[in-house]
Amino acid sequence: MKTDTGAAEPILILAIETSCDETSVAVVQDGCKVLSNIISSQIETHRAFGGVVPEVASRKHVEVITLVIEEALSAAGVRPQELSAVAVTQGPGLVGALLVGVVAAKSLALAWNKPLIGTHHIAGHIYANRLVKELKYPNMTLVVSGGHTELVHMEREGAFRIIGRTRDDAVGEAYDKVARALGFPYPGGPYVDRLAHEAEEAYPLPRVWLEPGSYDFSFSGLKSAVLNAVNQSKMKGLEPDTAGIARGFQESVVEVLVEKAVRAVREYRAEQLLLSGGVAANKGLREALTRRCAAEGIELIVPPPVYCTDNAAMIGAAAYVKWRHDGGIPLDMVADPGLPLEKWSVSAY
Hints:
The protein is of the alpha/beta class. The chain has helices at residues 43-47, 54-76, 95-112, 121-127, 171-181, 189-198, 220-235, 242-267, 283-296, 312-326; strands spanning 12-17, 22-29, 33-41, 85-91, 116-120, 139-144, 149-154, 160-165, 272-276, 300-301.
């Protein structure tokens, strides 16, 4: 649509993200300009339980969703009638949490007479990189989060192909379990990352490469090795070298992630390497990947931490791609906690 001056009107998408324990609403312009990105976190609530409690998460979303929507519109300076569409995370995620966002988005789309865009959570993490820099194709994304560890190849815009995934624990899950073993509260990843940088030496731990040529990951054996190191120290009446173990664990994880990501970029002739997901905020991983890509001449895009953890701005960025190719979807869309990424690829491909 163009204005009277002939200039194209901006595409304004109100996006909602409630897949886990953050209630977030954003207004994103043309898939790359964030006008507002409001996040209401539940970390303090779930810390008492040592992890996310699905039923509690759902109730918290219900409590704040309306206020967060109002704040996002106010911060963006946008009225509902100016919006082009309403987007929401359709999946994957916790089904109860997803339902809160989906019901809210459907209600707004119906009340405001706006198209609805169901969006994939991991596609959002990937397209968070477009909030930083324009993407080139083909590219490769290393997705690292509490529930996902994947290498995703995009031959074209919106066309996702998973070439490697974790066979057991996701890397974020492994970080939290190791942190718990070392005596840190939930979420434990940042504690392990910080302690790893303080250690003088790394406790020797294995690297899990799997069979030659595989892009899959496995972290359960490494987690078991950490638990074994802690238990052996305690059996000897000694305090575990928590800093050394944290550094050894992080070095093992980072080495495997970096090596496989760089090899995938080379094999698939990717123009860029993108880093996505909550663990993308990990200082050790960001530093190692930056050094390696600089040495290899690979263009690396890493979002700022606010766009690494769950947020609605990334959902708006991914929804814009879906909007351009497929438009809106029927209001009978349902939340899908197991929504496959490749199935969500835009229909043009």
